[in-house]
What does this fold into?
Amino acid sequence: MKIEQKKIDEAVQTITGYGGHGILNCVQCGACSAVCPGVKAGFSLLCRNLIRHLLNGELEEIIEDPSSWGCQACNRCTEICPQDVRPQEVVFAFRRYQANEMAFSTSAVTSQMNLYETGHAVFTDARELRKKVGLPAEPPTSAYNEKAQREIQALINSGPMGELGLF
It folds into this structure.
């Protein structure tokens, strides 16, 4: 089935507008999926698969899927991406789209509370493992940056997620 270019353009414009600016850089190499804990846990719409659906203009087909809420915000996908797609930002942009459409998964409430409180939907301390593979112990995420955590809270409070009254 051929997808209309209009649908593809709408999907890309929507996700870009919500912060997924690198989406068009994706070449579907799969590096992001290879390191994603969410993909390994079985969430089908993270990293490469989510981007593929978006680049195919399939917003309506995936709007209700709760997989995007399985992102742990670990930033591994962004660190490894050779094309500067910044897959985590694409996932978060899709979450914003879902929230604006009120397609918020009830299974995501705990992860959203964690995101609000710590800056990560799920946080695991991987500093020792990161050192073993030659990466800086503390990844460039909000987990180690109080200012970033406050900014995340402000963004959540001022957007559709804040309007849901969860926080």
